[in-house]
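Quick entry between incubations.
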Amino acid sequence: MEITLTHYLVLSTILFSIGLIGVMRRKNLLMLFFATEILLNATNIAFAAISHYIGDLSGQMFAFFIIAIAASEVAIGLGLLIVWYKRTGKIDLDQMNSMRG
Amino acid sequence: MELYLYIALFAPLVGSLFAGLFGASVKTAVTGYVASGLLFASFVSSAILLSYVMGGHTVHVEMMTWIAAGDLYIPFGFVVDQVSVVMMMVVTIVSTVVHVYSIGYMDHDKGFNRFFSYLSAFVFSMMVLVMSDNFAGLFIGWEGVGLCSWLLIGFWYHKESATWAANEAFIMNRIADLGMLIGIFLIYWNTGSLQYDVVFSEIENLPLIVTTWIGIFLFIGAMGKSAQFPLHTWLADAMEGPTPVSALIHAATMVTAGVYLVVRANPIYDLIPNVGLFIASLGAFVALFAASMALVNRDMKRIIAYSTLSQLGYMFVAAGLGAYWVALFHLMAHAFFKALLFLGAGNVMHAMHDELDPFKMGGLRKVMKGTFIMMTLASVALAGIYPFAGFFSKDLILEVGFVEHHYVIYTVLLLTAGLTAFYSFRLVALIFHGEERYKLFGIHPHEAYKFMLVAMSPLLVLAMIAGSFKMTYYQLVTSLLPDTQYHVHGEMTYWIMTIGTQLFVMAAIAFAYKKYANGGVSVPDGTSKTENRFCYKLLSNQYYIPKFYEEVFSKPYLELSRIAWKQFDLKIVDATVDAIANAIYKTGENTRDIQNGNLSTMLRWMVVGLVVLVSLAVAFTVGYNALGA
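Done. Structure below.
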């Protein structure tokens, strides 16, 4: 069986849905980061697949950019997470409400 | 000369604005002096303009463009010609006198400054009305005097009756003004201009039917302002205002604006003698109708108001029969003696602590000598006794009726002249002669301030001698108005008519004196035989016309308004607006939970938003492609 564009897009959609559900359901901040990474990589797969399909390299370049941005996001996010953990000893999303209006 | 024109026009406005600055504060005598002084300046300028116009010139200025849109061009233009200068003189003389008089009359009133502001504003509007060189400017002045009349009738706004009367006057005038506005529209529609000179030169080329409608609609406007039947009820109720207001607005100037309009539009009315005849007939009817109501009335100011109405009827007879200069002459003479009569009545009112029933007065001539003389002479002038002003103007109107072969109108007017003499001297006799009935009511009357009497004296002099200006006046105005002399055929007939009229009028005066000046007059209490007669009741209830209006117009209208309010306003309009507001409020109430500060919930809503946006994008793309294909 040959692997076509459709397979890649289906994989991408499944991963995106998993990421989305993760974003919605997870209460642990670390798990939330994982979910975000899954979301971003789902789009990366779609970008790379479509780029290959239409023979244009721009899509793959975009994928690289996204990887770079995801890396920096995780770096900053983890930094903040560690600071938060040091101050409160918890990383539960429901308890992060000190700025509630 | 333009300078004098602007002074005459704008001095009252400056006075009004100056007094208006202090409008809300307590009495400052200076406002009265400044307003009167500026009015006097306006009077002097008018006099200078009069002498200039008598030299055969006219002044015509275009101050600025008012409306210029497409073919429509209406400037703020003012003209001082033979007709408007006469009106300017009448307005400025009477208003100067009334201003000075009011300084004394309104002495103890809290609204002293406000009063002068309104009064001067009125004079300004009146000047705009008479000096404008086009129908639009005339209409502005027309509405301006209506507004000031409303403000001044309702001057004592804490009195329910005063506010009611003010609204009545305003609404009645609004009905008539609609007619006037339609007339002006018709003029513009058919001649393409509103300038008097253009309109009057074009009017002959119009179809007769159009001219007739223009004449009718303009006259409807005049009927409202001059309180002609059936729009007359407001004038008697307008007496709720301060007496100087009645003298200036509701006797001398504003109510004569209708006559001025007909006189000014004489080239139109000359073409439609049928409408003219209707105007004359209505005038004669109103003359008799109003005089009959004055016969039995027991309110001093209302009697004089009905007399004004009656005299306005005379003016319309003259104007309707094409004797425009006669109408204007009677307007002028009437302004002087009627304003004098009102101001005298104001003195009496002050003396009697605002008592208006002449039956409760009597014998006041001993304490109020000056007022007594002035009111008697004013009544003599009103009755038309030689050689006072009323004789020349009123007799002329009778002659016009006779010469034009309208004998019915002539007879009605002759009868009215007798009634006029009777009710005028009934009033004088009841107030100044007979027993001192006021003592029963514990009133201590006193004469008015001396300067008020001095202020009134110019009017007295004019009421006495205005008739002698007849020829000068005739030569002046007939250069603009149709020059028709009215001579009764046959010397003999003329003398019989004149002397007969005089004797008739004098007999009426003598009868009034005999009946009311001697002792034996008591305060009517509704039990005497006369008072229970049908015709007395009919007259004292003003022919039941106010009652009729209330039953036929006011009450159904109130009912209609109530239905509109309850059914339409509350149930449809209000309900719709409330529903929109409620929907928004409820939405806010229900969605505020989104902002609960929980990051997890916010993320979920973010996902919802994303889904919505993506769905929209997909839907639009699909739709767009479907359309494109």
